[in-house]
Amino acid sequence: MKNKTLFSLPLEKILPPMVLQFFMSGGYALSFPYLAIYLKKERHIPFWIVGIFLTTSLFLAAAGRLFGGSFSDKFGRRPLLSWGIVLRTLCVFSIGLSIAFKAAFPVIVLIDFIGALAAGSFNATLMTWVSDHFEEGLRVKAYSAMRTTANLGWAVGPAIAGLAVGNGYALLFLGTAAVYFLCALGVLFFLKESHPLILKGEKVDHQVFSSAFSILRQKKLFHFFIGTFLIGAVMGHLIVPMSLYASETLGISPKGIGLLFSLNGGMVVLFQVWLIHSLRRRRLSHILVWGALAYAAGYASLAWALGLKSLELAVAVITLGEMAIAPSLSALASNLSSPKERGRALGATGFFHQMGYALSPLIGGLGLQFFSKFHPCPYWFFVAGVAVLAALAFYQIQEPQSATPLHS
User: Fold this and answer.
1) The domain that contains 94 carries what CATH number?
2) Predicted TM-score (pTM) of this structure
3) Are residues 196 and 221 in the same domain?
4) Is 338 exposed, middle or buried (0-12, 13-18, 19+ CB in 10 A)?
5) Burial of 263 (0-12, 13-18, 19+ CB in 10 A)
6) In b/e form, how buried is each residue of 75-104, taking b as 16+ CB within 10 angstroms?
7) Quick one: which of 5, 256, 276, 357 has the fewest CB in 10 Å?
8) Taking the CB of residue 306, how many other CB atoms lie within 10 A of it?
9) Predicted confidence (pLDDT) per residue in 8-39, tens digit
10) What is the pLDDT of residues 226-260, one digit of tens each?
11) 252 and 193 in one domain?
């Protein structure tokens, strides 16, 4: 009897992480986008303090990815997945209680920082779990399928939050904690150990912290990590900097900005897997180059934008770059690493990507403050230039030929 498949992937392997990604993404989108609003409106915390808090949280999540990947190489995927989701659930639940009982702001900060470390560790380990289950030619398609359900979650979460936010911010975080609790049950029952060496009964002998940093110094990954950091900084401009530019400089309404993000998410849901399947015979490093150049074209066109229609065109081109790059980064990191260091490689990829991503609101805010009054806006040419530098870094990657073709 022929095994059932989804996007040419074995259903029993791809369905659990896809469902988990949907609920994790939707649960996050249910509450965390409102955290800054709550702190400013209800607790009267200055915006600059909120900005430092959220940026630090992103940096800690990046560190969590780096060390979580290394720990998963040492102790296996299942312990890191289990403890990561349980700790994340407890932290979100505690934030909900802190809001309900008006705990001091530093208490919320501390809980969120612990949760960010747990989230980073969990995400890196989940990417590694997926890599363990698929051979080289199928990994990028598996990550594409997961991105599709993640974007579906991003669509559902805010829709539910819009209906529930009138009942208070605490309820949103308690709702996220309930969703994460279901995800924890899913991890415990459906995600078994996948570390290839541990499954063979082999001893995994490395020092967790020194090994986490040693992966950063590998020459074969040097250009890959540079490109990952640069493209992370470029990708991060789609949320805060572009929204500010559209609102403050071009006078686009909040509804119009929402349509731009709907266009971005809708394109990913409809075309992500199709695009990767269409590029199945191309080297992953070349797909990254083309994706980075699409980002460059999209942000360069953003500099000339005059209204919503031109913004929509720019976002459509940017989204093509996103669909090419996001799944290919994880797939290529897996393909360039050995089974004993796969978690470290994926964790380091997440680390560099998120470090760049975390810097984009700060750099974008300063750049737009000085240049947004000009047309075309010079700052977006700078962002496009960074994307071109990322493309050059990806082009230098020495990718094994055997690692490149996708299975049909």
Assistant:
1) 1.20.1250.20
2) 0.89
3) no
4) exposed
5) middle
6) bbbbebbbbbbbbbbbbbbbbbebbeeeee
7) 5
8) 10
9) 888 889 999 999 999 999 999 889 888 888 89
10) 999 999 999 999 988 998 899 888 999 878 888 89
11) no
